[in-house]
Amino acid sequence: MHSEVLAFAAVVAVVARILFPFFKNVSSPLRNVPGPASTRFTDLWYLWRVRRGGFEQDNIELHRKHGELDPAGLFLICPNTMLTPPPQAK
After folding, report:
1. How far is the C-alpha of 1 from the C-alpha of 44, rounded, in Å?
2. How confident is the model at residue 15 (pLDDT cuts 50, 70, 90)?
3. How far apart are CA 84 and CA 42, in angstroms?
4. 3-state class of 83 per DSSP?
5. 77, 41 contact by CB (below 8 A)
6. pLDDT tens, 33-82?
7. Domain count, the chain
8. Which of 37, 62, 73, 81 could form a disulfide with 85 if both were Cys (CB 3.0 to 4.6 A apart)?
9. How far apart are CA 48 and CA 84, in angstroms?
10. Are 33 and 70 in contact (CB under 8 A)?
């Protein structure tokens, strides 16, 4: 009996852990901010870009790619983290 309850609780916890970021993204005020899709759920995109070096170039490329989409020049690079344009881009 106890093992069934524990197994059910474990399944519920895993499903909640998987689905929570998706529900959070749907209700986030940042859902309309442009940026790479994976940045809405994890910091891995940002960490990978910083680790390999040249994030400054990636920053400039994001502004070239999405610049017309957002007049303020803001881009999502991590959940709840936005990138602002470099001073020379304005």
Report:
1. 40
2. very high
3. 19
4. strand
5. no
6. 777 777 777 888 888 888 998 888 887 787 777 665 565 667 777 777 77
7. 2
8. 73
9. 19
10. yes
